[in-house]
Amino acid sequence: MIRANRTVDSLVIRTALPAEAATVAALHARARATYYPDDGFDWQAAWTRAIERPDGQVLCAVRDARLVGIASFRTPEGAPAETVKLFQFHADPDHWRSGIGTALHTACVEQWRADGTRTAVLDVHVDNRRAQAFYARQGWVPDRQNPPAEGDHHLPLRFAVTGE
After folding, report:
1. How far apart are CA 82 and CA 79, in angstroms?
2. How many CA atoms lie within 13 A of 25 on its CB side?
3. Rg of the chain over CA atoms, in angstroms?
4. Backbone phi, psi, residue 90, to 5°
5. For residue 41, which of 28, 52, 23 has the smallest C-alpha distance?
6. Residues contacting 104, CB < 8 A, separation 6+
7. Average pLDDT along the chain, 164 residues, taken 10 residues at a time
8. Nearest-5° angle of CA 126, CA 83, CA 130?
9. Is 103 exposed, middle or buried (0-12, 13-18, 19+ CB in 10 A)?
């Protein structure tokens, strides 16, 4: 769990609350629509489960009482305890290039370090060039240990949390 709210300028990064699941899902839908068509999946239910999971965490970035960024992560099943997977990471498209993603990513890394995480992994959609460029600027690299399967539309990336 995030140890305390982290404030950068007027941006506050904190743990998401169960009552915010609909707002989180709406932000997710706006961001996801920029690179992937609507798939009809019940994202509100998925976000409710993510927020309520005892083994995971959802951080949200709030500016001027408005949710502007979200990140969901946990140790995936079968992975070593010192590995975390970033399952979802979105900034509101109306606020892109304003530092929200960088501040949210920094908060994630701080949490991972506090939790003793050594490695973070994620899968980014092959058509989401904006996200790929963002992750590269943050230090993520292609995950050579887990290359994409043939026909997969995601690129696995890896981040050395401890600077390994």
Report:
1. 8
2. 18
3. 15
4. -140, 140
5. 28
6. 13, 59, 61, 69, 70, 71, 89, 91
7. 57 94 92 77 82 90 94 93 94 91 96 95 90 96 84 91 71
8. 25
9. buried
- φ, ψ at 125 (rounded to 5°): -65, 140
The pairing of beta strand 119-125 with beta strand 141-142: unpaired
Q: Residue 93 carries which DSSP code?
A: G
Domains, the chain, in order of start with CATH, read: 6-160 (3.40.630.30)
What is the residue whose two structure tokens read 């009552």? 19
Answer whether 121's CB lies under 8 Å from 158's CB: yes
Tokens read off for 35? 């690179």
